[in-house]
Specification:
It contains 16 helices and 4 strands. The chain has helices at 2-14, 19-49, 61-71, 82-90, 104-109, 124-146, 151-171, 176-201, 203-211, 214-219, 225-254, 263-287, 291-308, 320-326, 330-343, 347-374; strands spanning 51-56, 75-79, 96-100, 116-119. A 4-stranded mixed beta sheet has the order 2-1-3-4, sandwiched between helices.
């Protein structure tokens, strides 16, 4: 324990040699919020003025629920036919039209939404915004159906959600749905930058000390390999904790953002992600011998997974096949866990999402242990 403490203090002292890295650790939470706070202001102005038309060609419990949820966020005009809706779109009576085709009610019941499309003649911005709002409403229907045994139970859950939404709107006239979206986008950008920052204090440190023979010299002291790895990991985890604390404090006390989730819970979820980021960085740092290759691999993998997971670019505007790919990214399950607490607040769904996230952590941790155990000492020289 004494050797472990010594190494941890050594890591903290070495931070003084990298003031730019420390500046980024403090600066990133501000940037994360500023970028998406300005985005929220623009989004709010659009959603307050946007008007949708809708054609329900497959009336049923689930398509009716979808329409109800859409009405909570936008002005919605129902058309009796596709022709009437197209006329309304051409005459600029509405900004976009949602089409619920035959079979869409059953697809929602089977939690495999199909036959739902949106059309706009007013440019990509309106259509993308519409897709995001439509995706949020579909997500509510799907989540409620997953926790319901039959149609009767679904209706009870729908009524409960509608009653809760009414209570929220009476207490807060702001658009909570947009604020929830803002929160997930802030967290998404923060997670991407956290991966880069933690890599500077975990995987990069290991590779630098391997290249400079520092690792070998440290092992000639009473310090063991396990103490070296755990000390490095803990110091890197501290970086993630600092960013998480700063972000949550800024969101709550400086920008007064209603995240739709208890901030202590949000902090806990982000700490779990920080732990996973440390493990992944350590795994790459141990597995790759050349420093340049390791840096390139970390940058490439972090960028691609962040983009594909929907944490930086909303999944609602991505093609269907990319939305399926996103489920294989750990960042997706962080955002999904936060979203499930914001919208459904069902403990079973939250626990399922957390279980998947913990499974990712266990997998990466197992790989890291395997690499550390089988890595020969001479490879560190």
């Amino acid at each position: 324990m004494k050797n472990f403490t010594w190494l941890f203090k050594l890591r903290l002292k070495s931070w003084k040699k990298h003031p730019v890295r420390l500046f980024l650790v403090v600066f990133i939470p501000f940037i994360s919020i500023f970028i998406y706070f300005s985005s929220y202001q623009r989004t709010t102005s659009y959603t307050n003025n946007i008007s949708f038309g809708i054609v329900n060609e497959d009336k049923g419990t689930y398509t009716n629920a979808l329409i109800t949820f859409l009405k909570k966020n936008i002005k919605l005009k129902e058309y009796p036919s596709r022709a009437a809706a197209d006329d309304g779109l051409s005459n600029n009576d509405v900004n976009a039209v949602v089409y619920l085709k035959k079979g869409s009610n059953r697809s929602l019941k089977n939690v495999k939404p199909k036959g739902i499309s949106i059309k706009s003649l007013q440019g990509d911005l309106i259509e993308k915004q519409g897709k995001m709002l439509l995706a949020a409403a579909i997500s509510k229907v799907v989540r409620l159906q997953r926790i319901s045994k039959d149609t009767a139970e679904f209706k009870k859950s729908e009524n409960y959600v509608k009653a809760n939404q009414l209570t929220i709107k009476q207490r807060n006239t702001n658009d909570q749905e947009s604020k929830n979206m803002l929160t997930t986008q802030i967290i998404g950008f923060l997670m991407m930058m956290m991966l880069y920052n933690i890599a500077d204090f975990a995987g990069d440190v290991i590779q630098n000390e391997r290249a400079n023979h520092v690792y070998y010299r440290l092992l000639t002291t009473p310090l063991t390999k396990n103490e070296y790895l755990w000390g490095t990991a803990l110091s890197a985890l501290l970086i993630g904790t600092v960013e998480t604390v700063l972000t949550t404090l800024l969101m709550k006390y400086v920008f007064n953002i209603n995240a739709g989730i208890p901030y202590l819970t949000l902090f806990g979820i982000l700490e779990v992600f920080s732990l996973m980021a440390v493990i992944i960085s350590m795994m790459i740092g141990l597995a790759v011998n050349q420093r340049g290759t390791g840096n390139a691999l970390q940058t490439l993998s972090y960028t691609i997974t962040s983009l594909l997971s929907g944490t930086v670019i909303p999944l609602a505007i991505m093609p269907d096949f990319m939305q399926h790919i996103a489920k294989f990214m750990p960042q997706y399950w962080v955002v999904e866990t936060i979203s499930s607490i914001q919208k459904v607040k069902n403990i079973q769904i939250v626990l399922t999402n957390l279980t998947v996230l913990l499974a990712f952590i266990l997998f990466f941790f197992s790989v890291t242990l395997f690499v550390a155990k089988h890595k020969k000492t001479m490879q560190f020289i």
